[in-house]
User: Which sequence fits this backbone?
């Protein structure tokens, strides 16, 4: 097994891979309504690899600001992941 398969192998089990409209994944649309976000949260909550998805997003976005975050990943919007990252950094500093 390659390192890529080990790290990203979870994506084959992700429920979101079944949601694509016009070649653009529903989870990566910029114009999500409240109802859209509710629907996507429901899908994420049922997904067996949601924790892996969120962890991957947080690692990939670890050193970026809000404007560089994209997609509905791990059950969170870019804004929610940005806030979560700020809390994690704050808590990490408390552990030093």
Assistant:
């Amino acid at each position: 097994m390659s390192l890529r398969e080990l790290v990203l192998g979870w994506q084959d089990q992700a429920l979101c891979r079944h949601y694509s409209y016009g070649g653009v994944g529903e989870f990566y649309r910029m114009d999500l309504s409240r109802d859209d976000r509710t629907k996507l949260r429901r899908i994420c909550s049922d997904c067996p690899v949601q924790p892996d998805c969120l962890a991957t997003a947080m690692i990939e976005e670890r050193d970026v600001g809000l404007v560089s975050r994209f997609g509905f990943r791990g059950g969170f919007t870019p804004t929610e992941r940005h806030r979560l990252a700020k809390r994690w950094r704050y808590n990490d500093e408390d552990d030093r």
